[in-house]
Every structure is written in structure tokens, then in C-alpha cells.
Amino acid sequence: MSFADLGLPGNILSVIEKIGYKAPTPIQEKAIPVALSGKDIIGAAQTGTGKTAAYALPTLARIGEARGKPRCLVLVPTRELAMQVDEAFRIFAENWSGKVALLYGGVRYDQQLKTLQDGAEIVVATPGRLIDLWKQRFVDLSGIEVLVLDEVDRMLDMGFIEDVSSIIRMCPKERQTLLFSATVNKTIREIADWALREPEEIDVRTGAITADTISHALYPVAGYQKYDLLLALLERTHYKSVIVFTRTKRDADRITEWLESNRIAVATMHADRTQRERTEALAGFKNGKFSVLVATDIASRGLDISGVSHVINYNVPEHPEDYVHRIGRTGRAGDEGEAFTLFSPDELLQLQAIERLIGKTIERKKLEGFNYRTEPLMLMPGNGVGAARPRRRNR
Ligand code: AMP
201 near 30, Cβ under 8 Å? Predict the structure, then answer.
């Protein structure tokens, strides 16, 4: 199957050729013809599957020449994803006369207002800032023809359900709606029931929830030795670049200080850092200035960073699906990746929930030569402890 078989027009095919995409990915193969026909879509697809192009290419083909008013709205959960989608649209829209506006919070309004006033046709936005600008009448959604809801599970997870519902209501009833989500649960179905019209369901999730190019290892250790073990792991691992995930912002800051005091240069990302700091951290990590990124789950989804060879979970994630998203930052596009998790005995319930979700036992390992002060708990799975209950998160 080639892109030309999907019904895309010549100007878009020439951009695809220039970018170097050889063949459509499964989500593109299934979603592009449906989106081109104008039908609504519920797409179950994880990040890294090529879903941005799956909605961006047919949308650009459908909205045709520019008219100077927003016609496509892409709603995404985080600023980082918004930037990534905006960049993808700019690349795909090379042969197109329209403009793209990128709207997210935490920064000044001027530049964003300017792109809107310049007549942007495509708006890529996070919910809060969009509502803010809409209330002040700076953005007109009355001409929206295509509404894309990206990473809906994540938006709901972050507490945006009211905002997302309001934004859907701000758009005209006559429109195409393309909904993408890594998981499609009951709440997402309820939204789809009232917001979408006879949607076509497309599911490209494979049976295996984690890529088989990733090897997993669990390092049991007493809580008080986690800092030392983290450092030892970093010192003994040949990594190209590594993301260290922490559960809280405070942990992220403390681990940053700890690694820096041990002469490891790191970039840090969490929700309390300013937008400029977050952008710089991500850019520095992507361009190789920093080979270690310490982050909360804010960096666990959506971000497309190539060449991450290792993910280290400083804590066992509280929500099992976060484990899948975190380790999905490595082993992308067929590359090999390794995921290490530091485990202390109080994290047993969370570990069991993860192993149930991914359907396998994570191999227990001891780091050779590390000075364990307490014998690590090399517990075996399935010792009869009940299901873990998700707790509130503090990103
Ligand atoms: P996404 O899931 O949209 O975040 O895309 C993940 C990565 O796959 C991005 O770096 C895209 O540029 C890349 N990509 C998307 N479609 C294709 C394709 N058909 N062939 C090769 N790479 C692709």
C-alpha cells in the first residue's frame, strides 16, 4: 500500500515524498481514506503510530485553499504535544497558503493573538488557553469544519472533561470530528456518543501493549538506597540518552540536584517549571546537549523524541498505564530500548497492577557490584496481594 492509493491529492503526496515517508503506517492506511470521505472517526492508537499525519494529511487535503478564518481545530492535552502537532502541520502544509496558530497557556498572548489576527486556518490548542481566548472573543470557532480531539484519554486524566465538552459545544454542529485516544473507555464512548456522528472505529493497537523491542528490568532496593542505585545504574549503563521518571515534582527537583552534584548534566521537566524552562529542557535533550532528562509524567505521553535508549523509573508508577506510556518513550520505530524500574517493597501493589496490565513478569535484577545495605527483596510475582487502587497524582 502506498500513500497514493489512499486518495491523497498530488500536492500532499509531493510533501510526503519530500519528508521521506515511504509507506503509510497502519493508522494512516485505515484513517486517511475515511477522513478524506468526511466521516467521523474514533481512532484507538498510541503515540508513535503516526497518528498526527493520519489526521493532519486528510484535513489539509479537505479544507483546500485558505480563507483566513479557523477551519480546523486540533485540541491536545499538553503544551509540548501542541508544539509537536503544530510543527507537523507546518511541515505537511508546505505547499499550502494557509496559516497555523498555536495556542497554549503559560506564555504571553501577543504572538498567539497575532497569528489569529493574521487569519490562521488551523488552530492547535490546549483547552485552557483556547477557552480563555474564546471568552475574550479573540478566537472565532464558528467556521470550524474539522475538529480533532487528540489524546482524549490524557485530556480526561488531566481533568479537562468540562473544558473539552465546552469546546465541542463552541464548534458548529455541522463538522467532521476525529477523535484519537490510546484507550477507549466508557467516558470516551459517552463523549463520542454525543459529539460524533456515526463514527468509523479504527483500532490499530496490537495485542502486545508494550513494544517487543524494549527489555524490562526491575531493580529491588530499599527506599533509602534509591539515589545511590540510580547513580550506579547511570554510571554503569551505556546509554545514548535516558529519561528518569519520577512520581512528583519534588522528586524531580531533588534528583536533578543529586545528579548535578555528581557531575551529571541533566535537563528537568515538570509542571511547576516555566514554559521557557520546559521548552529549553526539551530542546536541550533533543539536540543532545543533555543526555539525561529528569521528568514527571508530563513527559510520558505523546512526546516524540527519537533515540531515547533508556527509561528509568525512579519510582514504580502509581497508575499502571503510566508505565506503558513512560517506557513507550524508548524502543521507538523499531529501535532497541531498555526500561529499568527501581522498586522498593512499599510499591508492591503498583508493581502487580503493572504486571497484570502488560501481561508479563518484569525480570528482577541485582546490580552487580552495588553495595546493597539491605538484601533486596527479589520477590516472585503472584503472592496473593489484591489489586492496586489508583491514587491521586501530583505531577
Ligand atoms: P506520531 O505518532 O504522530 O507522534 O508520529 C511518530 C513519528 O513517526 C513522527 O516522528 C513521524 O514523523 C513519524 N511518521 C509518521 N508517519 C510516518 C510514515 N508513514 N513513515 C515514517 N515515519 C512516519
Answer: no
Nearest CA residue ID for atom 20, ligand 1: 21
The CATH number assigned to the domain with range 214-364 reads 3.40.50.300
The CATH number of 3-203 is: 3.40.50.300
Phi/psi region, residue 8 (left: phi>0; alpha: psi -120 to 50; beta: rest), is beta
With a 6 A CB cut-off, is 331 part of the ligand 1 pocket? no
Mutating to test ligand 1, I would choose from 18, 304, 306, 330 the residue with most ligand atoms within 8 A of its C-beta, which is 304
In whole angstroms, give the CA distance from residue 353 to residue 386: 9
Ligand 1 centroid, distance to 48 Cα (angstroms): 6
CA–CA distance, 123 with 130 (Å, rounded to integer): 9
pLDDT confidence of residue 203: 83
Question: pTM here?
Answer: 0.66
Of the listed ranges 16-30, 97-111, 207-221, the least confidently predicted one is 207-221
User: Is the Cβ atom of 328 under 6 angstroms away from ligand 1?
Assistant: no
CB 378 within 8 A of CB 364: yes
24 Cβ closer than 6 Å to some ligand 1 atom: yes
In terms of phi and psi (left: phi > 0; alpha: psi -120 to 50; beta: otherwise), the region of 217 is beta
Classified as helix, coil or strand, 37 is coil
DSSP character at residue 194: H
Where exactly does CATH 3.40.50.300 map onto the chain? Answer: 3-203, 214-364
- Whether 163 lines ligand 1, by a CB cut-off of 6 Å, is no
Q: State the pLDDT at residue 387.
A: 37
pLDDT digits (tens, 9 = 90+) for 363-394: 999 999 999 998 888 765 544 333 334 444 55
pLDDT tier for residue 209 given thresholds of 50, 70 and 90: low
Backbone dihedral angles phi then psi of residue 265, each to the nearest 5 degrees: -80, 125
Distances (CA, A) of 318 to 132, 144, 201, 351: 32, 38, 30, 8
Does residue 329's CB lie within 6 angstroms of at least one atom of ligand 1? no
